[in-house]
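Q: Could you fold this chain for me?
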Amino acid sequence: MIRFKFIHDLSIKNKIIVIILSLIFLIHTIGFIFITIWDIKRIQTGIQTGLVLNTKLIANNCVVPLMFGDDQQATEALSHLKNIEFIEKGCLFDKEGNIFATYPDTLNKKAFSVFPEQQNNILKNGFFYVHEPVMFQNEKYGALFIKANSKPLKTAKKNIILTLILLSIVLDVLSIFLASKMQKYISKPIINLKNHFDQIAENQDFSNPILKINNDEIGSLYDGFNNMLNHIYIRQNERNNAKKLLIESEKKYRGLYDSIRDAIMVGNTDKKIIECNQAFSDLFEYSFKEIKDTEIIILYENEKQFNEFSQALKSHLGNTSHFLYTVNYKKKNGLIFTGETTIYYLNDSKGNTIGFIGLIRDITDIKKAEIVLKKHHEELEKLVQERTKELEEKNMELEQMNNVFVDREFRIKELREKLDSLTSDK
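A: Sure. Below is the predicted structure, expressed as structure tokens.
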């Protein structure tokens, strides 16, 4: 599979060309092999047939010389073999198997010292061997044996191969030309789709569908692509509208958020600051950029105050949605102040706590006012006690005076009664 990996990396255009050319080359190869084998067999058969016919013709001319034992006439008859250039030698045997005449006449007769057995005409080791009996009126007078080289066959092979190579080159060039043209019917719609996709990816415009050209599988692919674009376009519009509403809502509530006079701080479960409002920045003198992702321990007077807050945050978790807590904070400039903090837990859709919101109010002035009020209250109570004591003393004096006056009245009354009594006695 590794050997063909380069094919996978080719463009669709080149892949189609490679596939088309591979099929054409395969068909060319199979066709040319078949044509070559068939043509060579045809030429071989034609050469053998021609040799057999010429051998029969010469064998017929050798009947009379064999009948009358005229070897001179037989040699003259065999000399006609020179008209066939690729015949190398020939030999005429009488019916006893003795060499009667040869071609060429200078041929060493020892080469045919034995009368060859009857055999089929064959091509062996690059030579044609033809054996033809000399017959007359069904009587055999001898046999003619011919050996010819295969130069005509080799020449024909070369011509066939050369012709097929030239034809193959022409066909290959034509195939490449046609393949480069025909591949466009498949690759061009795909390339157009790819270019359209790249354009959409670049400008993010999903409202521009691709124009369908054909009704084949690629046309169905176009329909699917356009359908996908339509869904994306609808969702993009919905998202943009939602984003627009979110931005407007964020601006609205950000203004409300920043207009709240109490300092607001949002922290996560790692006790790091992730959000704050302007009142927080004004109170602690930290900008949001400075304080973002900073551990909230930086806001407390000391580690003890922070640990107490952490314990309170942990102890109230799961028991209530919020709780009130008072702690000493530290500003950026090191100034310590007392803050009344309302803690609200933040939960996700599954109810898991993901953070908290702290509403912090500087109650330093209130604490001071409470101290002053307490002092005044104590002074007032002291004054009231003093006045009460004074009133009690005055009251006692009044009671004493009252008692004196009451006793005097009683005495006057007694005196009057006594006077009245004396007066009445007279």
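A (continued): Residues 21 and 176 are 7 Å apart (CA to CA).
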